[in-house]
Specification:
- The structure is a single chain.
- By secondary structure, the protein is an all-alpha fold.
- It contains 10 helices and no strands.
- It folds into 2 domains: 1-85, no CATH class; 87-203, no CATH class.
- The chain has helices spanning 2-21, 23-31, 36-47, 50-53, 58-72, 75-81, 87-111, 116-140, 154-170, 175-202.
């Protein structure tokens, strides 16, 4: 319970900082008639060229990935600024984020830039842990939509993407180690969530 409160406090403080920092930009986006959903969709449009450039120009391809993720930092603050935040909007944002992420992982598999066994396992364990984390969240929190999204695990994916950018642009290669550690974490969380849900359902 204490750990959960600390995590919630950290997330709330991080959101407050982003909301204050981006307030001038949020005002401009609102005057332009943009909503958080439109910004989320724009993120997918920016990412699209990656799929055509990844085999011919890796650095250029990942520049579109970088732009896509940079645009993504505005949708949450924009939804809160316009007082339109909802679990439905969070789900659409998370679905877009994870679709982009899984497409990146899939392309890395075909590029053979790192251990493909780690990538294949990651393609399996990441969706599984996200499903179980979302189910676990339904047990404890109310939602204004069908489900209560669980976006917190996406932070670990950002860690892998950070090291991926370091490899592509600067040649720093810790990809196998980082993905191995993330896979181990997701495996542990998968087992924990599965046991937790079994315990709750059979009580």
């Amino acid at each position: 319970m204490v750990r959960k409160r600390i995590a919630e406090r950290f997330i709330k403080n991080e959101r407050k900082i982003r909301d204050r920092l981006f307030k001038p930009i949020l005002k401009i986006l609102t005057r332009l008639g943009l909503t958080a959903t439109k910004v989320s969709n724009f993120k997918l449009v920016i990412f699209f060229p990656f799929l055509f450039l990844v085999k011919s120009n890796l650095k250029l391809a990942f520049s579109f990935v970088l732009l896509s993720y940079l645009s993504d930092i505005f949708d949450g603050p924009l939804a809160r600024y316009q007082k339109k935040q909802s679990d439905r909007g969070k789900f659409l944002d998370i679905f877009g984020d994870f679709s982009v992420y899984l497409l990146i992982i899939l392309n890395l598999f075909f590029l053979n830039v790192m251990n493909n066994n780690l990538l294949v396992y990651h393609l399996f364990i990441f969706p599984l842990v996200m499903i179980l984390a979302t189910l676990k969240k339904q047990e404890n929190e109310k939602t204004d939509w069908i489900i209560k999204p669980a976006p917190e695990l996406g932070q670990f994916n950002m860690l892998f993407l950070l090291f991926l950018f370091l490899y592509i642009y600067f040649g720093v290669n810790y990809l196998n180690l980082v993905l191995l550690l993330i896979n181990m974490l997701y495996t542990g969380l998968t087992l924990f969530y599965f046991i937790y849900l079994q315990y709750k359902w059979y009580r």
